[in-house]
Design brief:
The protein has 485 residues and is of the alpha+beta class. It contains 14 helices and 16 strands.
Length: 485
């Protein structure tokens, strides 16, 4: 008999269904040679300081720093019952080995092993490592279970992070609370995050807007703008000259053909960024919706930092892409490019987030609106990432009027490529639309002006952070939050 430990009841039920463990018991399912149970997040947690020494129950400077030589753990009071069930299951004589089936990542590894060690279990265990909750993915995962030793370093990394949180939080919080005679919570993630907010607010508070002025000239093929002037009088002088001339000479016309590559597949951070920009979702909402889709077998594992797929997935991708396009009613371009999606060397624990085969045949009508929106975003990104590049010509035109240079850019689409798919679902807003007008004139030619205007503007303060910007900044500077289980 094998004991399989998942992280959540819903995941355990999906595993049990595939394994044939259909008998429901108190806190677990059993059958077909398997017992499948769950951890309900963190069942075991680090003990507070007073368990090491009663004197630590009071906060005093002379007791710092508190640095345990031997770390102690305790069972969480809120999940004591489930822990008891797991401990008894581990002790059952017919249980010969275990399978760690918590989320395939650092935090999932920690959750399982803390329970395993706290229960005093010494039975061998293997690791289920999958990126999809589809039935076939589960079967394949159990056919090729990984040796537990392969993930020892992952567990140690999670252990290190957890203990670093404890050391920083306990010691720094007590230190500053005693020094300033009020409770001041300090944390490895909390404090750098607060510092980012404070520094940005200080920038905003000290910011003083500066006015600037430009002159804009209009013509049949659009408009061109002068450089910025700090003094309004200088801009007005140029305005007068341009009104007197009412024509401009084309000094240079420089055309460059450019390629805008198809976007990479989503990792969690890039998905959160687009969901915030396009849908208005917070980072946590996006995480919750994507996790729900994963547990419903509609997308692959969400907590990934990779934006590529593995080489062995090339064979199945054309069928998946066509099926996914049909599911959302997308019109594909002629070419489907899968080579650009796959690079095993750039995949760490999990590949990029993509829809599953199950999604292509599932009834999505009952999905909540938030989950539907995130699922569509993931599907459309896969379709775009496998489509040809967007190509365009960019003309940079410099005109002379009133002895000053005016510049304008014209953009002409040569081949829409992946943008044709994206725009089917997310049309550009008016202010984001590109101008495609051009000047069909040669250098040294003159164009008549239809309008001359003075434009006034002000420099703007830095924007306040959003939670999505925090996700990006924390990723840049190496600050990680522990996953909520």
């Amino acid at each position: 008999m094998k004991l399989v430990l998942a992280e959540k009841p819903s995941v355990a039920q999906s595993l049990a269904k595939v394994l044939g463990a259909n008998k429901r018991c108190d806190g677990y399912l059993e059958g077909n040679g398997y017992i499948v149970s769950w951890c309900v997040g963190h069942l075991v947690e680090l003990s507070p300081p007073e368990t090491y020494n009663e004197t630590f129950s009071k906060w005093r400077l002379e007791d710092l720093p508190i640095l345990p030589e031997h770390w102690r753990y305790q069972v969480s009071a809120s999940t004591r019952k489930q822990y008891g069930i797991l401990k008894n299951l581990m002790k059952r004589e017919d249980v010969k080995s275990l399978v760690c089936a918590t989320d395939a990542g650092r935090e999932g590894e920690l959750i399982f092993r803390l329970v395993y060690h706290q229960a005093g279990c010494r039975k061998p265990f293997e690791r289920l490592w999958i990126s999809s909750m589809e039935d076939q993915a589960i079967r394949d995962g159990f056919s090729y279970l990984e040796p537990s030793t392969k993930y020892d370093a992952l567990y140690e990394a999670a252990l290190c992070r957890e203990r670093a949180d404890w050391i920083v939080g306990i010691n720094a919080t007590r230190l500053f609370s005693c020094l300033y005679r009020q409770t001041l919570n300090i944390g490895r993630v909390m404090t750098p995050t607060l510092a980012m907010v404070v520094m940005r607010d200080a920038e905003i508070a000290s910011f003083k807007p500066k006015p600037f002025y430009t002159v804009q000239i209009g013509m049949d093929a659009g408009s061109a703008t002068s450089k910025r002037f700090d003094q309004k009088a200088d801009a007005e002088t140029l305005l007068t000259k341009c009104k007197e001339a009412m024509k401009a000479m084309i000094q240079t016309m420089d055309r460059k053909e450019k390629t805008e590559r198809a976007p990479l597949l989503y990792d969690l951070t890039s998905l959160q960024r687009d969901a915030n920009r396009i849908l208005g979702f917070t980072a946590q909402q996006t995480m919750d919706y994507t996790q729900a889709l994963y547990e419903k077998k509609l997308v692959t594992y969400p907590r990934t930092d990779s934006r590529f797929l593995t080489e062995d997935m090339k064979v199945m991708l054309p069928t998946l892409i066509r099926s996914a396009a049909g599911k959302v009613g997308a019109k594909l371009t002629d070419d489907i490019l899968v080579d650009v999606l796959c690079d095993s060397s750039k995949v760490s624990d999990h590949h990029a987030i993509i829809p599953t085969k199950t999604m292509c045949t599932a009834d999505l009508a009952e999905l909540p609106s938030g989950e539907k929106a995130i699922l569509q975003l993931i599907v459309v990104r896969l379709l775009c990432a496998s489509a040809p590049d967007h190509r365009y010509a960019e003309d940079f035109v410099v005109l002379i009027c009133g002895d000053e240079e005016f510049s304008k850019k014209n953009k002409t689409v040569l081949f829409n490529g992946w943008k044709e798919i994206w725009q089917q679902f997310y049309p550009a807003k008016d202010k984001e639309k590109e101008v495609y007008s051009g000047l069909a004139l040669a250098p040294n030619a003159y164009v008549s002006l239809t309008q001359v205007e003075l434009k006034e503007g002000k420099t703007t303060a830095p924007k306040r952070f959003t939670d999505v910007i925090f996700c990006e900044r924390k990723e840049w500077i190496g600050i990680e939050e522990r996953s909520s289980a």
